[in-house]
Amino acid sequence: MSDIKFSDEAKEVMERFFANFPVAIRESYRNKIMRGVEYQLLKNGLSEMTRDIFLKSLDETLPKSFEPIILRVKDPQKLSAMVASQKEVDREHPLVAVRRWKLPVVQSDTPVKNVVALMAGPRKNGNTDCIMDALLEGIREAACDVEKLYISDLTISPCIGCMACEEKELETYCATKDDMTDLYGKFLKCGLRH
Length: 194
Description:
Elements: E1 5-6, H1 8-18, H2 23-44, E2 48-49, H3 51-61, H4 67-74, H5 76-87, E3 114-119, H6 127-141, E4 145-150, H7 164-167, H8 180-190
Parallel strand pairs: 1-2, 3-4
């Protein structure tokens, strides 16, 4: 790598490219890309790295997600046009087309009377909590008993693989004593008819 000659234009483009990376990781990217440069020089039988060889090695060494950083040094005008086009909304030819599908009607022979709702959102009274409250209000209007629990308030331990649940009937469903003990009973009650 030390015997590679660099054209002035290649040095300038290379330094502009590596300036995009934090100092802590810059050297690792430099080493990776220089291996790509060496490959390009060997493949083409060249001894001097030009701007084009450097840019070709970037395209072939780095994944597609690096394209904006590469365009910053390769073709800044193309990058600016790409950014501008992403800001524009073309209603007739959108970049992403959203398709809706019809959901099948869900029917059950067993009327639901007990509902346990587990709130897993990070904030009480946040958006998810408010949406869940509106949903649960509709369920209450259908004459169901509703209990809402916040997962963040519960202590739930992971399975330790003791297999006690398989070996014998446990009143608590699991040998681990945590808040899941009560939840198992609540879940089973949801499946029972009144």
